[in-house]
Amino acid sequence: MTRSEPLADPALRPEVKALFDEVTNTISYVVKDPRSPACAILDSVLDFDYAAGRISYRSADTIIDHVRGAGLRVEWLIETHVHADHLSAAPYLQQHLGGKIAIGDRIAVVQDTFGKVFNEDRGFQRDGSQFDHLFADNEAYAIGGLAARALLTPGHTPACMTHVIGDAAFVGDTLFMPDAGTARADFPGGDARKLYRSIQRILALPGETRLFMCHDYAPNGRDIRWEATVAEERATNIHVQEAISEDQFVSMRNARDAGLEMPRLIIPSLQVNMKAGQLPQPDASGKRFLKVPLNGL
């Protein structure tokens, strides 16, 4: 395996604040430039009571309190991918904190796929224009003076990206902690072989690179964890440690995925998140409605 992917800026170590949402097992991050108040927020959560059809802002308000309490300036609101297990709070955070809502430029593929699943009309643009910025593969950007780079890492979805920020990389759902393995690849547009190759791109980063996961489910009852190094993942990840071949991974991943149930919030999450977190437009009475496609997933 070639270890060739450079760190965006190995001289800088961003300050990382992790916020864990117990309901969806999601970890959101506030990533700060150590030399300025500039920060980015990754993978925020909008609280949603599916049974009641009610949204709330507890998780997002916790982020807002942290940002304001620390005197930070939000420059980016980044989604590592179109999440299927929680709704994004990016528009709410933008309203209160500013920043650009951004995702990978393959979002158009996801929008085309799920625009059909949810029978969206012609008014739904399938070009990613709902987002303020679309990251291209290997695109360099900055958080204040902190250098960052977006790497395309598809497989879980076609539009997944890993964000390398200083000595840290935020991997979304592509990788889990070493004892939890990897994300599923059976959603429409997912591909286990592409997932394996994307993970190899992440594992080609320097061994000391800090990796931050978007989810943890505490396997075997251990405490929730979300940070590992590239070296730890290479050596001990139960699905992709160095002794496991691509074909072995694909066989394992496809077999595991065949027995998994769909995420509880996949239907509301996809139709909201593919629109940059925007809720459905209200009808003439002011009410908003989500669609439930029968036998569509």
List the helices and strands and how they pair.
Layout: E1 15-21, E2 26-32, E3 38-42, E4 47-49, E5 54-56, H1 58-69, E6 73-78, H2 90-97, E7 100-104, H3 107-117, E8 133-135, E9 139-143, E10 146-152, E11 161-165, E12 168-170, H4 192-203, E13 210-212, E14 227-229, H5 230-236, H6 246-258, H7 266-273
Parallel strand pairs: 3-6, 6-7, 7-8, 12-13
Antiparallel strand pairs: 1-2, 2-3, 4-5, 9-10, 10-11, 11-12, 13-14
Compressed to H and E, one letter per element, the order equals EEEEEHEHEHEEEEEHEEHHH
CATH-defined fold name = Metallo-beta-lactamase, Chain A
Shape: globular
Under CATH at level 1, the class stands as Alpha Beta
Count the beta strands: 14
Radius of gyration: 18 Å
In CATH, the homologous superfamily goes by the name Ribonuclease Z/Hydroxyacylglutathione hydrolase-like
Classify the secondary structure makeup into a structural class: alpha/beta
Please name the CATH architecture. 4-Layer Sandwich
Number of helices: 7
The domain count comes to 1
